[in-house]
Fold:
Amino acid sequence: MLKRNLWKILLTLVLLGWALWELTPIKDAPSFATYVKDHATAKKADLNKLVDDAVALQKSGKTISEFTGIRQLVHDRRYDLAASFPGINVGDVKNLDRRNNILLDYLFKQSKSKLQKGLDLAGGVSVILEVDEKALAKLDSDYARQQKLDKAIEILTNRVNQFGVAEPIIRPIGNNRIEVQVAGLDVTNNPDVVDSIKKPARLDFRLVHPDLRPATQPPADVPPGYEVLSHDEEDNKSGEAYSLFYVVKVRPEMSGENVETAGVTTGQFGDYQVHLSFNKTGAKQFGDVTTANVGRLLGIVLDGKLYSAPRINEPITGGSAQITGRFSAREAERLASVLNNPLDVPLVVRQQNIVGPSLAQDAITSGVKATWVGVGLVALFMIGYYTIAGLVAVISVIVNITILLAVLASLGATMTMPGIAGIVLTVGMAVDAHILIFERMREELKAGKSLVAAFHAGHDKAFTTIVDANLTTLIASVLMIVFGTGPVKGFGVTLTIGIFTTMFTALIVSEMLLDMLIVSGVMKKMIMLHLPAPNINFVKYGRRAFIASWVLVFIGVGALIYKGRSVYGIDFAGGDSIVMSFKQKIDPAKLRHATDAAKLGEVNPLYQSELGGTRETLNIQAETGKGKQAAAVLTKAFPEAKFEVVGETTIGPSIGKEIQWNATKSVFLSILGIMLYVAFRFEIGYGIGAVVSTVHDLFMTMGIFVLTERQFSAGMVGAILLIVGYSINDTIVVFDRIREELKANPTMTLRDVINMATNRVFTRSILTSLTTFLAALALYLFGGGVINDLSFTFLVGIVTGTFSSIFIASPIFYWWHKGDRKHVEAHHDIAPKYEWQGTSKAAE
Structure:
């Protein structure tokens, strides 16, 4: 037994150890200053004095944060941080400022939790950018101005996504401003990030004067048509920084508009370089320039700054080139990002604010509470129903989620509501996999097999179903990653990781634990409760159920069409933004309760403060035309706050048309991909049934959501995607059993086979739905705000998914083949034979 499971034990322990390492620390340090003082290993007295002085600077308002205060003081006092942290390797960096910056960046990162919260859960930094009015004045129509603004938003989205933040909010404000909200990106301590976001990024290739060599002092006389540009250098021996001055032509030989792609590569000595690929026109231009100027220096100038001036040693006609220089990895990545997304209108930073989470703190707190209650209910149910086997399942699910979170942390991901939706679905799939195995074991025990034999047979028979169900969901999640953006992509990444962790824990961890318990004699029999299998003629009632459910679907779709854009919340439709000053801060939960009582629709109260300042304001985001009403309601409801309107504007949607289109495209391609996979692995009738049932679930859930007077928000994207995954998973389980029963009962009619298969998986479907329902119900009962809407969607989706797999998918399959078994057999495949080492051997 031990010999057979040794590799599984070792693999599980290694993965768990790695996961715990990746997730440590779980929480952020109380303060960066405290973290620096606690982790210094030498010259503590000197460092503590410096850090205390930096904290005093921050408290007096002279610096924005403790981090910037420390960075300022180590520069002013020429303090070498490496002397206080001798155990941290900063490489062979001789320049003091660079060495200190590397150390500070490292310490700041280490002081933070490995798994950060997204903007909707933790808030972040808001930057208001304004398009240069001079650039817009040249445009001859409002449509052209809007096109420029939309294009700028698209480019900013691409740029911000390069920084690894999760689901930033980028939306128009008024007709010439853009708001960028980011979480997980410390703009306070990295002001150059804002610069790289707003750069127009004009790239020029300019020749350096052939006779005036670069010098440490600018030349006295500059020839006509040339200008002096400096480039920062570093002495190889001392590490001290200095500047070289180049005399560069004003008129470029060519621009960078024909650069096709830009990416980061490493040179022969590990230095970072930016690799440029030109399109056909650019390749010819660059070839002509380099052919005519062999031996000269060609300056690479971005927005008037000289980045590099390499010598042209030979004609470069291959259509690619390198920008070399003393780049850090981060600088090279930012440069490549800007070159890939050139803005053609200048942007000016008008305001930088620290904003509260878009999901209010009371909703977050209640959501965390609801999550624990839901997990506890699922654990109690599994242990109460399956006893020891249920405990094994709970342990397996805990290992599953731990590894999933660790992988997300290692990828630098942040936790957001769509990501949480992906975790909820992962838990549902993990519990489902165990219920499949346990119910199969029950059938084998009922057939008279011993516990050991039932264990192996149950695992073998459930294996194919688990693989099929997870592979179909994997198709959907991968397509969401490839074609989705923002919340769609975040959901897809989480779900993809969850699929692999679910298969690992269900087929390795729980199998290993059960094997050891059974073979060792600790578990002598499988004690579990029993929900009797029904004997229902599902095919008989299929037509009535099909008609009734589609009537409800059409009613819901009709309501969706009738209400039009009114079903969209602020995230989709934009709205009013009212900024209010106050004397007394009121709990956001109370503010939202007051606006809910006034029936003003969606209202989001967000506290924000200007970077570097102490003044805090309340930003009320409401539906279009309701901002002033919301402000009036709050002013009347809370006279002690002394609210006063200090500004108002309109805001665009945070879920733009591109994200909406990508979400729609991802769902459509996912459904198409699933149909093709199911048609290939099973046959086309199954594929049609899976697609129709999934579409049914989507429209029914959205219809019920609208009929209950709710509005679509950003989090709803994740909820809808979850329904797709859940519906597919449930349908494949039913289809897999139909296929198995067709093989096992060659003389039975198609109607009887479908009824038998559906009745046999009915208990499993109810149990799986019940466990997932319990988790969602806890979120619905204890979660507030957006979480309440999300959990409501989950609940409806769970019910519709279970219903459709029985009363929609199976009847569609039956009708597609006209109720004729021979028609099925003419197209039916043979069930695949998966090999799984160790599960079918006799106990040793």
Summary: Residues 29-110 form one domain. The chain has five domains: 29-110, 117-200+351-355, 203-342, 361-526+533-561+658-825, 575-651. The two ends are 6 Å apart (CA to CA). The chain is about 55% helix and 15% strand.
